[in-house]
Amino acid sequence: MIRMAKSNSSVSPEQVVNTVCAHNCGGRSRLACTVRDGVLVRVEPAPAPDDAYTGLCVRCLTLPQWVYSKERIKTPMRRVGPRGSGQFVPISWDEALDEIVDRFNALIDAHGSSSIAFVRSTSASPIASYTRLASLLGGGGTSNFYGGVDMAVHMGLNSTFGDKGMYGQHSNEWTDRLNSKLTIVWGHNPAETAMTAMRHLLNARDAGCQVVVIDPRYSATAMHANWWIAPRPGSDLALALGLLHVLIVEGLIDRPFLFDHSCAPFLVRTDSGKYFRSGDASTSEKPSAPQVWDLHSGRAVELNSTAAPALEGRFEVNGVSVATAFTLLTDSVAKYTPSHVAELTGLDASDIVDLARTYAKAGPAQIGLGYGVDRYKHSELFARAAAAIAIVTGNIGKPGAGVGVQSHYHGSHPARLGPGPALPKWASTKPVPMIEVGRRDLPVRAVFCQGDWINQRMGDMNTSLAYLKTLEFVVTVDHFFQTTTQWSDIVLPACTFLEDNSAARDALVFGNSIYLRPKVIDPVGEARTDFEIERDLARRFGLGEWFRESSEDVVRGQIDGARDPAFDNITYDQVVQAGGAIRLNVPTTPHVQYGNDGFTTKSGRAEFYIEELAELGEALPAFVADHEALLTHALAERYPMLLVQTHARQRAHSTFFNTAWTLEIWPEPILEMNPDDARQRGLANGEMAEAYNDRGHVVARVVCNPDFPPGMCNITEGWKQQQYADGNVQELTNSEINAGQTLIWGHANIPFFDTRVEIRPAALKRQGAEA
Ligand SMILES: Nc1nc2c(c(=O)[nH]1)N[C@H]1C(S)=C(S)[C@@H](COP(=O)(O)OP(=O)(O)OC[C@H]3O[C@@H](n4cnc5c(=O)[nH]c(N)nc54)[C@H](O)[C@@H]3O)O[C@H]1N2
Ligand SMILES: Nc1nc2c(c(=O)[nH]1)N[C@H]1C(S)=C(S)[C@@H](COP(=O)(O)OP(=O)(O)OC[C@H]3O[C@@H](n4cnc5c(=O)[nH]c(N)nc54)[C@H](O)[C@@H]3O)O[C@H]1N2
Ligand code: SF4
Ligand SMILES: [Mo]
């Protein structure tokens, strides 16, 4: 991480423009961009209104190489060879846009607007993601491929604490780490994936907070921990249940918190698993609040009519057997004794006991989740178990406590910008869960991709690719030729976040401030912004009336129209005058989630028990051992290696895949594994190997790492098709659909890491590789 350098703008004719990084590492770093004669020549950190949030990573020093890369798409292109051949010719913007409009209109006339689907990059501008156009097209809106990544952990947290939106924030502000006595960094590698937030963790550690990293790999973050705990991959749910077992058996629980803020005292019918309510026998009645057991009268009553609800116990009410939710939790974790969990996770039983005790006794303690624990089939159950650990110990709603994702912007003040431009009431899209694409019949015949969809967003790529080949028309808008462009009919050149013609491309909240993202340089080649492309297409579709504003107008509306008190007395003009960033109207103390506001669940309490999931046996977060990562899985014998795809320090996903400085350090995809695993397969460091399973294969160079756990290997996600010697890591990844997630949330997360492979020396050698 690089701290601020002094800008020399005052002594040279160069101009320094401050903007905010748009790459989806989530860091939102404020960048000071030096522009000389209209050319971006240097990127340094720009001061944030609160210095706690000043800083950037080394990747962004390479932005000039990124933005002026020779691989930039400079003009619109039309496919001329067979699909997939990569043969394109330049065409004019008018030709390209006309062709898209003609083809889309013909499909809409023949098959309706759901025959078109939109899909977007996570780095896209929040106000220019083609969502407005997608909602208006054909008078009924198009299909919308959504979901699939980073969602399981949020599903679990949202189910427990109340829905805060799919990427809702449950953790306290970053600077609150200093108030923690212990923090568990669980399945997260901020030293590489949240570089600007890592300092808050290190500051806390230096101030005496114990840092515990739970990761099967000795990660760059584990290096900095006081305690590194390495369970077998995919076994964290068992570990969390084991910790709950110890906490409950040893009485390391916060009874007042459980009584006042959780579902613990609610009675549950043991026949149906549903909450027991008044008039429970009659299912036709509108559900009222769950009842509790009154210890004084020995009856089931409304919660607010007793001063003595039971926390524990099994009872009979009118012939119905009931138990408190806490008793069901206690009983459900009874079998996760330290020794049983040791078998399931590969850990020492004494470490499990120690961790539970240390966490409960430390003082305010945090659990910071990453997305390494999001990419297994039952990750939402894991997140619910992790949340239950915080609930039973009362580690929520106070400084230094909390449980939530601690990546991306999670750790910012939860201030909300005002809404974007109004749309008519009928405007909407038809959601299609990404994970189901290619796996069920869809009405879609054409796809509009903002960014690289097939390489980046889809597991089990051969299934998705087969689907893509059935489509009649594919459009991709991107900065670079990448994997999906290869399969497209029309390719459009998009401006990067640095190029624009507008004073305010986006506004965003980060940390405790509001930032603008202005134009830094002119568009490269004939590139246009996504905002302009969406507007130009809309006009051609006869929808121009909904796209009258400039991006600056939209941003002004979002700031001046914000109803959040954090924006009181803050106007767009003031943010501009302040140089594009201003501190929000929020307290100077770090924000604490659930400190003042209650939970937004139906009961207003933290709900570790979810009655809707009783039919699947998941009302409590049970350990479901049916997923590919586990050694007990049927595929484990044939495919003994687990392949994860961590996020790479030198890229943000695929971004920077082609910058010279990052390639110098890490020029090609590597397959990292323990030297013993390599040796057993006749492989040595630096040799080319093939990882394969029933879904596909990839060829990559082996890097032997003695710190790597036996049985686990890694190829970082984000390499582009043209960088692989053969195959693609995404051919191997799993796309199994989770029923519980689908039942509650209507879609499932892609279990990218539930991927077993076997590895052998590659028959095919990369060109130029040593024999
Ligand atoms: N440099 C860089 N930063 C990024 C990104 C990027 O591409 N590059 N991407 C951004 C995005 S969108 C995301 S979602 C985040 C992801 O970033 P992270 O949340 O850090 O996720 P990963 O890198 O996927 O994995 C984190 C850690 O989980 C570990 N892990 C794997 N399996 C298990 C398991 O079963 N149990 C446990 N406890 N740990 C496990 C891995 O070994 C790894 O060290 O990073 C963001 N930041
Ligand atoms: N196997 C495996 N796959 C994964 C993951 C994993 O762990 N394992 N992680 C998943 C996760 S967590 C995430 S968040 C996704 C990220 O997936 P994406 O968001 O799709 O990844 P990016 O590489 O950021 O962007 C994809 C493409 O969009 C282009 N692009 C970037 N910005 C813009 C823009 O402003 N306009 C236009 N038109 N194009 C733009 C980029 O050049 C790039 O080609 O990847 C997922 N894929
Ligand atoms: S890639 Fe991430 S850490 Fe690096 S400058 Fe951009 S936002 Fe900051
Ligand atoms: Mo992500």
From TrEMBL:
Parts forming coiled coils: none
InterPro entries: Asp_de-COase-like_dom_sf, MoPterin_dinucl-bd_dom, Mopterin_OxRdtase, Mopterin_OxRdtase_4Fe-4S_dom, Prok_Mopterin_Oxidored
SMART domains assigned to the protein according to its UniProt record, in alphabetical order: Molybdop_Fe4S4
GO molecular function: iron-sulfur cluster binding; metal ion binding; molybdopterin cofactor binding; oxidoreductase activity
Cleaved signal peptide residues: none
Pfam annotation, one family: Molybdopterin
Superkingdom of this protein's organism: Bacteria
UniProt keywords, alphabetically: Iron, Iron-sulfur, Metal-binding
Domain 4Fe-4S Mo/W bis-MGD-type: 14-71
SUPFAM superfamilies with a match to the protein in the record: ADC-like, Formate dehydrogenase/DMSO reductase, domains 1-3
Family, as annotated: Belongs to the prokaryotic molybdopterin-containing oxidoreductase family.
PANTHER family referenced in this protein's UniProt entry, alphabetically: OXIDOREDUCTASE YYAE-RELATED, TRIMETHYLAMINE-N-OXIDE REDUCTASE
Protein name: 4Fe-4S Mo/W bis-MGD-type domain-containing protein
